[in-house]
Amino acid sequence: MPRKPSRIAVIGGGIGGLTAALSLRQAGFEVDVYEQAPALTHIGGGINMGPNAARVLIRLGLGEGLLREGVRPIGARISGAGTTAAPCSGRRSTRNANSSTARRTSPSTAPIC
Fold this sequence. Notes:
By secondary structure, the chain is α+β, with helices and mostly antiparallel strands. The chain has helices at 15-26, 51-69; strands at residues 7-11, 30-34, 77-78, 86-87.
């Protein structure tokens, strides 16, 4: 007799909860996501994630959406305690409709800072 897949509840429909739910479903689990908001909408100022987080989302099949919706800055300023800000050596950017200094790039490359 085949074993019934485990059923898992994920509490929270934010980026962490939905990523966990997607990866669990792809692994063969039955997943229920519980979120208190009546609808998932665009709120807040955006999400900043590092290259490793983006790689996880790409491996889950979300790369096309990241390229369509995401923006990768051409550069950044990094400062530590007692130091002055220095430009990042990063050189790539994904599109940004409001910026003439951004351009579309491959999701497999990331700035080195």
